[in-house]
Design goal:
The structure holds two protein chains of two kinds.
Chain A: E1 2-6, H1 11-15, H2 19-37, E2 43-51, H3 58-68, E3 78-84, E4 87-90, E5 96-98, E6 114-118, E7 122-129
Parallel strand pairs in A: 2-3
Antiparallel strand pairs in A: 2-7, 4-5, 4-6
Helix pairs in contact in A: 2-3
Chain B: E1 2-8, H1 11-26, E2 30-36, H2 42-53, E3 59-65, H3 70-75, E4 82-86, H4 95-102, E5 112-116, H5 123-126, E6 133-139, H6 146-149, H7 151-156, E7 159-163, H8 175-185, E8 191-193, H9 202-217
Classes of the chains: A alpha+beta, B alpha/beta.
Chain lengths: ~130, ~230
């Protein structure tokens, strides 16, 4: 038994095969919804944070964002991207440290029992407008 | 005027993934999100696994493909429910597409749902589908640098399958380098070195996946040492 389901997606998605666009479209929806609720008629700036472990390329994301906000009140909004470094915490010795050369291991006691504190963020901090 | 938001950009996907996960937990179903490059051997792995277990467990498959139902056709002979999601250009599956197709399965009659994600090592890692766990499949022909290049997937996956070990003599793949990178990223992760075509290493994989299933069906089940 095989079912075939075809999902229709916006033309823009078909042209640009990349996850940055999908993320940019979700961002655009949040920006526009927030702007409407806050009675903004134009969005001048969008501030977001991206963790280093999230494989989003800022240049491509910027391009995807422009595509996603086309013909909206955020069309001319500047996109400000803050890159957040990977920070980890060692469960064994409590040491906090930054990622070095892909080594997910405590730099003090060598334990692999670690928690990732920062680096997986992908969030919108705020928007600015009038 | 500045309006503070502090919201996960992908929360629409995350919320739906949480719904899917709750539904699967309530139905006692293990969902495995299989992520690999195109051609690493996801479908071959499913062929072998379906063949091995036969009717012992109730399997289902969601096939994510940019286009065509070729992978699904290869699995048709195992007589299991298969749903194909053609993403039409999209490079990954998301939780909304999974949620929509779950209705096509008889969820009271399913132990394990394999999701063969679109062949790609980056995009699918970003989108939680509501799976029980992710499985990373890589093949020796792709080179030994995949863990170093895509650390997120190898951090998040519950196990790694290294396929096509029979081809190593014809490639410049270095076991040492592969293991060193993988250990740096995720030291405790189970690694299965297999050849889906020749059958090497498959028994360890079958035991492991069976243990995952038995643990899910009976939380008191203690896994056998592999």
């Amino acid at each position: 038994m095989i079912y075939l389901l075809e999902f229709s997606c916006p033309e823009s998605v078909k042209k640009l095969i990349m996850h940055e666009l999908r993320i940019a479209e979700d961002l655009s929806a949040i920006v526009i919804e927030t702007a409407r609720n806050g009675n903004l008629s134009i969005v001048g700036k969008v501030n977001i944070s991206i963790g280093q472990l999230i494989q989003v390329v800022p240049e491509i994301f910027e391009f995807a964002f422009r595509e996603a906000v086309r013909n909206t009140i955020a069309e001319d909004a500047e996109l400000s991207i803050e890159i957040i470094k990977v920070k980890m915490n060692c469960v064994q010795c409590g040491c906090n440290f930054h990622l070095n050369e892909n080594l997910f291991k405590c730099c003090r006691c060598g334990s692999i029992d670690i928690k990732i504190i920062n680096g997986k963020e992908l969030f919108v901090k705020s928007i600015e407008g009038e | 005027m500045e309006i503070k938001i502090m919201r996960n950009i992908l929360d629409r996907n995350q919320n739906k993934a949480n719904e899917v996960r709750n539904l699967l937990v309530s139905k006692n179903i293990v969902m495995v999100n299989i992520i690999s490059s195109p051609g690493a051997g996801k479908t071959s792995l499913l062929e072998r696994t379906c063949e091995h277990f036969g009717t012992k467990f109730k399997f289902g498959v969601i096939e994510g493909d940019v286009t065509t139902d070729r992978d699904a056709q290869r699995l048709k002979k195992y007589n299991i429910p298969i749903v194909v999601i053609n993403t039409e250009g999209g490079c990954h599956l998301d939780s909304h597409s999974i949620s929509k197709v779950l209705d096509s399965f008889d969820l009271d009659n399913l132990d394990l749902l394999f999701v063969e994600n679109v062949g790609n090592l980056i995009c699918p890692s970003q989108f939680d589908l509501g799976e029980t766990f992710k499985l990373a499949v890589v093949s020796t022909a792709e080179g030994d640098d995949k863990p170093a290049k895509y650390p997120m997937l190898f951090r998040d996956a519950r196990a790694v399958l290294l396929n096509k070990i029979d081809l190593i003599p014809y490639t410049n793949f270095s076991y040492e380098s592969f293991r060193k990178d993988l250990t740096a990223i995720n030291a405790g992760i189970p690694l299965f070195e297999i050849s889906c075509t020749r059958g090497d290493g498959m028994d360890s994989w079958y035991s492991w996946i069976e243990n995952q299933l038995l643990q899910n069906l009976n939380p008191n089940f203690t896994s056998r040492r592999l």
